[in-house]
Amino acid sequence: MAALGERLGVTGMAVYRHFENRAALEEAIVAHVLAGMSPADDSVPWDRGVCDWMHALRNALTTHPWVSRFLMHGQVMSTSWLQAASGLQRVLLRIGLSERDAARELQRISRAATGFTLLEMTSPLSQQSASVAAATENLEGEERRLWLRLAREFDRYSDDALYADVVEDTVERLRRKEAARRENVARRRRSIA
Q1: pLDDT tens sequence across 148-173
Q2: Which residue among 19, 77, 100, 122 is the one 20 to 30 A from 149 at the CA level?
Q3: How big is the CA angle at 41 (ends 120 and 65), to the nearest 5 degrees?
């Protein structure tokens, strides 16, 4: 707090007047960064809501890469993270998923989007071909040649394109779940009739 106060041109005690402790300051930081992840309007189709949420998360984390370490405090989930994830939660429940499936998809989507984004920031695809080429030094023959050919293709597949594929795969999986749910409802109606 003293170092932060110094950077802000105030005393450490002045910072404590606004934030009870470091955890409260970190929570405020996360809240500020994730505030732009407002929930999708219910008039927006659910698939667009999922896409928008995933892109908003990636944007927040890449714009403020340091915030990811504040999303959790030990084993305690950040309230601000839960508020940001509420938009995705509501969209998933609008699809008609059971709470069990919605909870699983919420974890799957948020972890995939967060994990992808963190990996993108530490190891962008644009660096992969050089990394693969260096790693193949100890390989021989066809195995080395195959990796070098693939590495050239890595340069043609950007992080943006890969993330778009992740989002598209997510929406397609959810569409299949929605279709299966609708079919189950229709089957039950037919069996009652």
Answers
A1: 888 888 878 889 999 999 999 999 99
A2: 122
A3: 20
